[in-house]
Amino acid sequence: MIDAPDELARAIEAALFASDQPMSVEALAAHLGDAPPASLRAALAALADDYAPRGIHLVERGGRWHFETAADLAHILRREREHNRRLSRAATEVLAIVAYHEPVSRAEIEAIRGVQTSPGTLDVLMEAGWVRPAGRREVPGRPVIYATTPAFLDHFGLESRRDLPGIEELRATGLLEPIDQTMASVLGDDDAGNPADERLD
After folding, report:
1. Which of 20, 65, 106, 131 could be cross-linked to 125 through a Cys-Cys bond (beta carbons 3.0 to 4.6 Å apart)?
2. 34: pLDDT strictly greater than 90
């Protein structure tokens, strides 16, 4: 078991660099010989501060930690050829509904949108790694319910769903154009304060 704080920080660095997936405190504890979670959290916070001015940052997304390129240097690592796949309006609406109301079933998504949702729309979001099946609702028919993934948080630079912007924030940035007012109705004007707290049950 690792005891010395410096050795613990070094061990955390090594584990995170070697891992091909972000790691939770619990996973790190098991990996490092059941190191105390409190000590791990303190070491992770210190490491994050230490890396803050560097070219890579130690960040927490959805309760899991990993290293990523500093945002202002990301352009250096971009490939010359980028194939950006734009989401359709339907996929954008569905992603917003899942993010703000998860876990949510397809029927609930359709009730919010007011139109039928193509199975392919959810498939696109799952292929992107942003949405996943999250079990089944305990109601007749037991429909599949969907939720966002850690990859969704990572892609949009969110530590948790509580960091999702409210409607007023989106309007202030100009992201809600007049032609996209459907998005406002999808998210709901009442969600401006802390939309991630809303649920469909």
Report:
1. 131
2. no
